[in-house]
Amino acid sequence: MTLLRRSALLLVLAGAVVAGWASPAPAHAGGLVATDARSRVVSVSPPIPGLSVTAIEDGAKLRLVNGTPTPVAIPGGGPAAPAVVPAGHTSMWPDTRTTPVGRKIGPGESQPWSLVLDVAGVPVTVTGVLEGRRPPPFALWWAGTLALLALSGGLGAAVAGASVLRTLAAAQQTPSGDPA
């Protein structure tokens, strides 16, 4: 095996180890912070026609679609929460009351949350739940990674073997009296 192929194989192995060192959780809180919990909206009460609130990015953010004819006020929720969503607009923001980031929720456990919106003077309660998830099976993840490495190593050996066979075949086709 040439130095170039050995270096490439070493680079692939190092990349696989680095990528798989910390097994990621099923929920990534928007891809920014790994967490084993997800958040979702359970209800909006009383229901207001044209108003919808959903948890996005596994609960790292909330999305409010204001299809009502009046503005919707969002009190609290951290500095990133918008104060008011005008009629006909959509807003997304990270809300400290609903995010799984920094919370310890075990697999199978849940933690309720709620926030109150103001829609034309009417208090509207949004309730949700944070749910703990199991991390991916460590042994299964590593077995798949090692199988891919073995497969890529087998392909590399096959390519190297084919290259050697071509070189030998070319050497045999050169007439013995002619300089190569």
Describe this structure in words.
With 180 residues, this protein is of the alpha+beta class. The strands form 2 sheets. The chain has a 5-stranded antiparallel sheet with strand order 1-8-7-4-5, with no helix packed on it. It is elongated. It has 2 helices and 8 strands, in the order αββββββββα.
Quick overview of this protein structure:
With 180 residues, this protein is of the alpha+beta class. The chain is 30% helix and 28% strand.
Tell me the layout of helices and strands.
Layout: H1 3-20, E1 37-45, E2 51-56, E3 61-66, E4 72-73, E5 84-85, E6 90-93, E7 110-119, E8 122-132, H2 138-173
What is the distance, rounded to the nearest whole angstrom, between the alpha carbons of the first and last residues?
A: 24 Å
Strand neighbour order, sheet with most strands: 1-8-7-4-5
Question: Helix/strand/pairing class, anyone?
Answer: alpha+beta
Cα-atom Rg, whole angstroms? 28 Å
- pLDDT averaged over residues: 81
Number of helices: 2
Question: Can you tell me the residue ranges where pLDDT is under 50 for at least 5 consecutive residues?
Answer: 23-31
